């Protein structure tokens, strides 16, 4: 398999995706002595965060772009190569490695980490701008709406249940179906009827924002105006799993990539982390997944200790063969030391 580009860059590990999970996986593999390239297209869900929540040690006034840029700078300081490129496909090479094809270059490696995340299915405008009244993550942002009027948009089970969960934070919750037909079950309909949630079926026709840009109210087709501080859009997710399909990785019915608890997929040498895998879509969880995956890759790629069978053939490890870290990363690590 070969991409359109003639430029080929070779690594021990290539990470596709520059969100918190991908950055952390690349950080660990680099610091554990493996030549690593990270390829990202830019943007992503983390980049959209105006304020970072639930991340110990990171002030909440930190934005998503600042968090990611700091991560990229950290990676480069340790010797990881970071590329802005759009990856279109991936496959195995004739010698059992993996080739990832980008618009600018092909990236070949012994191990690949898929950290491509997902895209939230967004409601159609007119709507408040993301971060100023339109949100997607209940666990990140419910705290923002304590004792405030809040909406949930959607017609499915998830929208109904998120509306009910928001009653733990405020007594003013509306469920907006926006001219759509409810798709929830009779049992869920009964649940809604027995909780103080207004189900509003009219289409949204206008948005009122304050001087600070935050949502103040939504206008509806019947002429009514309802005040909200913000709310949640629950229309599902589109998982960026095309590379997993190219490489033959098993996927779940919802589109997530099947992984074990260290990011291993069904294909040896291919790992997946972050929002493209099952579980809660949270930055702290993504960081943990990236760390565990980086460590798992180190177990696959590290030089020492060598197997007994290999030493029986090649003999004992000689002094000149250690340390196992490549010269370039060794020099980078020595230069990085701060305790001299």
Major sheet description: 7 strands, mixed
Mean pLDDT: 92
The CATH topology assignment of the largest domain is: FAD/NAD(P)-binding domain
List the total number of helices. 9
The helicity comes to 25-40%
Shape: elongated
Radius of gyration: 24 Å
Organism: Natrinema salifodinae
Pfam families: Pyr_redox_2
Keywords: Flavoprotein, Oxidoreductase
GO molecular function, one term: oxidoreductase activity
What do you see in this structure?
By secondary structure, the chain is of the alpha/beta class. The protein folds into 2 domains: 8-120 and 237-302, FAD/NAD(P)-binding domain (3-Layer(bba) Sandwich); 134-233, FAD/NAD(P)-binding domain (3-Layer(bba) Sandwich), CATH 3.50.50.60. It has 9 helices and 17 strands. It has helices at 20-31, 64-78, 138-141, 157-165, 186-193, 242-247, 283-301, 308-314, 327-336; strands spanning 8-16, 36-40, 81-84, 87-92, 98-102, 106-114, 118-120, 134-135, 150-153, 173-176, 197-200, 204-209, 215-220, 225-227, 230-233, 237-239, 270-272. Strands 1, 2, 3, 4, 5, 6 and 17 form a 7-stranded mixed β-sheet that branches. Strands 8-15-9-10-11 form a 5-stranded parallel β-sheet, with helices on one face. It is elongated. The model is unreliable at 1-5 (pLDDT under 50).
Quick recap of the structure?
With 340 residues, the protein is an alpha/beta fold.
Structural descriptors:
340 residues; 9 helices; 26% helix; single chain; flavoprotein; FAD/NAD(P)-binding domain; 5-stranded parallel sheet; alpha/beta; elongated; Ferredoxin-NADP_redctase_2; disordered N terminus
